[in-house]
Amino acid sequence: MSEDMPAEFTNRSLQETLLHERIAEAWEKARVTPGFLGEDEARFLGLMAAAAPAGGEIVEIGSFKGRSTVMLATIARAFQLGKVTAIDPHTAPSATDPGEARGGSTFEEFLQSLRAAGAEEHVDVRRAFSRDVAKNWSGPIRLLWIDGDHTYAGAKLDFEGFAPFLAEGALLAFHDALNAFDGPIRVFVEDVLRSDRFGPAGFVQSIAWAQFRPRDGAQFTQAREALARRAARLIPYVQDGRPLTGWRKKMYKLWRSRVPRKLMSSSDWLAAVEMNNGK
Q1: Catalytically annotated residue among 20, 90, 122, 150
Q2: Known catalytic residue at 150
Q3: What is the pLDDT of residues 212-222, one digit of tens each?
Q4: CATH superfamily of this structure's domain 7-273
Q5: Is pLDDT above 60 for 97?
Q6: Dihedral sign computed on CA atoms, order 166, 170, 174, 177
C-alpha cells in the first residue's frame, strides 16, 4: 500500500474489517439523505475515498441534495482525509434532476443534509460552476467524483478542468456512465479507457472508475481496450440526445448488459489498485 494510505490500512489484516465497518456507518447516514446514488454505488464510492493509494483532496462535482457528499464526508472524517470539496451551483432544473422547479435551488436542502449527518465541518462547500472553480485550482486530488453536467460538453469540461491535478494513484469516477446520458460514457471511453495515463478501470453499477497511473498505465492497455470496446457500443444510442425508445432502447439495454458492472469485493479492488500491481 502507498505511504499516503490512512494509517489504519498499514496492517493488511485489519483492512477488510475496518473498511466494512466505516463504509457501513457512512451508508447509514447517506441512505436517509435525498439523492439518486444506490447502495452498491455509495459503498463503492466510500471504498474509493477511503483506500485510494494517493495523497490529495477528495473533490465532488455535482452534489444535488447531498447523498454522495454525506458518504464522502463521513469517510473523510473517519480516516482523517481532510475536507471534501463539494462543487455545485445548485441551480434547477437540469437533465439529471428534472423534478426541481425552474429557477429553484437545491442549496438549502443540501445544507440541511449536511447538518443532519453532522458533516458540515468536513465539507468545503463551493456553490459555483465547476469551470469557475477549476480556474483557480492548484492542489493534488486523490479522488475526483464527477456527477455534474451529464452532457458531453459538460462532462468533458469537468474532466479537462480537474484531471490535470490527479495525484499518481488517484481515482477518477463518473456517475451515470451506464445510464442514458452521452457525457460520462463518452468521456470515459475516449479520454480514460483509451489513454495509457490510466491503469485499472471498470464499472460498478452506473459508476465508471479508473486509476491514474501515468508511469505504468501502458501495462493495462489490453484490459482497458477490451472494456472500451464493450462500453463504446453504447455511445451511438445516447450521443444525439434523443430519448431511448423502441428498438434503440432494446439495443442499448442489450449492449449495456454486456458491460461487466458488479460490485467488486474490497479485497479484490484493493489488490487491483495497489501501486506495485503490474510491476
Answers
A1: 150
A2: yes
A3: 999 999 999 99
A4: Vaccinia Virus protein VP39 (3.40.50.150)
A5: no
A6: positive
